[in-house]
Amino acid sequence: MMKKVILGAVASLFVASQAMADYTFIVPQKPGSGTSVWTSIVAAELEKHLGERIKILHIPGANDIPGFNKFHNELQEDDKVVMVSHGGNGVSYLVDEVDYDYYQYDPIGMMNLTIINGHQQDFDPYTDEIIFSAGSGMNPDMMAHILLKGGPGLTMERAKEIFNTQYKYIKGLSGGERRLGYQRGELNVTRESTAAYQKYYTDAPYSKVWFSQGVYNLETGEIDADPNWPNQSIHEVFEAKWGEAPSGEFWDAFELVRNFRDVMQKALWTKKDNPNTPALVAAFRAMAADPESMAKIYEKTGKYDWIIGDDMKSALTQLRGQIQRDTLSNLVDFLKHTGKAATFKENLLVE
């Protein structure tokens, strides 16, 4: 009898210690990255509504894939572990061999974000050669640059010509090296998350906003204007330059990868049927409804909508439906042309 009592007490202590353990948020990048900055901002407010501490674990690696793969293969078994994926993971989901799969987890919440692209004040990106740093999640920005250079009805072949003759895609730079290179003028175009752009370039006299990538509309499936950057969303900038809306096969390929990148720009996941999922979702809803928390977050990120819990499933279903054979094939073909080891993934097609 005494043995059962002792074992029961030990079991109760173990369960209590697990319940009181800190949450660990996995970030697949180094400290100081855009995703790291965003996670720190959000975690500070989320803790207030979750009632538990959050620690951030950075697991960087090539194309930001290793951290998400490690979550998928090992870390998700811990009920207190949450994966913070970002746009580069969305791009890799489309064109790289990865272990992770968004459709196998409990979705917690994501901010329907965008990316800001800037250029040097004295640089004309339409006529001069662009020098831009490659990196995780940056292929949609590179494609946007070529789209804006190419104009209406841009074909895949013409886009390749522009890349060959008017573009330098510099590989191998870290985030810090990229920012230093842009500050020195060695790079003439840059891109950042909204939080990182405001942190590093809002007051920089050498930098000028070129465009926002716009905001995905869950109701229409289209890219809407970014309310935080009036008249500076990509389709608005395109129409101001060319007099008509962007269209054509290159636009379609760009739109697919842009949507997967930006809707997934900052998204949080935990293991399927995690007993902590309801508490996490409830905490996100409470945070999103708290004017004080939102004011602190929006001050640094801009005001963008939250997509929480089951609403994330709807967004994922919409995005999956955009993967068409010709569009994905064109995307893979173009990325291969730019030097990326992209793979056509038949299993993603919904046809």
Polypeptide structure, described:
- 47% of the residues lie in helices and 17% in strands.
- It has 351 residues and is of the alpha/beta class.
- It has 2 domains: 20-112 and 264-321, D-Maltodextrin-Binding Protein, domain 2; 115-260, Periplasmic binding protein-like II (D-Maltodextrin-Binding Protein, domain 2), CATH 3.40.190.
- A 6-stranded mixed beta sheet has the order 2-1-3-12-4-13, sandwiched between helices. A 3-stranded antiparallel beta sheet has the order 8-5-9. A two-stranded parallel sheet has the order 6-7.
- Helix 5 (139-150) crosses helix 6 (156-166), helix 5 (139-150) packs antiparallel against helix 10 and helix 10 (249-263) crosses helix 14 (325-337).
- The protein is globular.
- Residues 1-19 have low confidence and may be disordered.
| Fold-level CATH name of the largest domain | D-Maltodextrin-Binding Protein, domain 2
- Low-confidence segments: 1-19
State the shape.
globular
Report how far the terminal alpha carbons are from each other.
62 Å
Mean pLDDT across all residues, rounded? 91
For this structure, what is the CATH class of the largest domain?
A: Alpha Beta
The tally of helices reads 14
Order of helices and strands: HEHEHEHEEEHHEHEHEEEHHEHHEHH
Find the structural class using helix and strand composition: alpha/beta
In the CATH classification, which architecture of the largest domain applies? 3-Layer(aba) Sandwich
Tally of domains: 2
| Strand proportion | 15-25%
* Main sheet: strand order: 2-1-3-12-4-13
**Biggest sheet character:** 6 strands, mixed
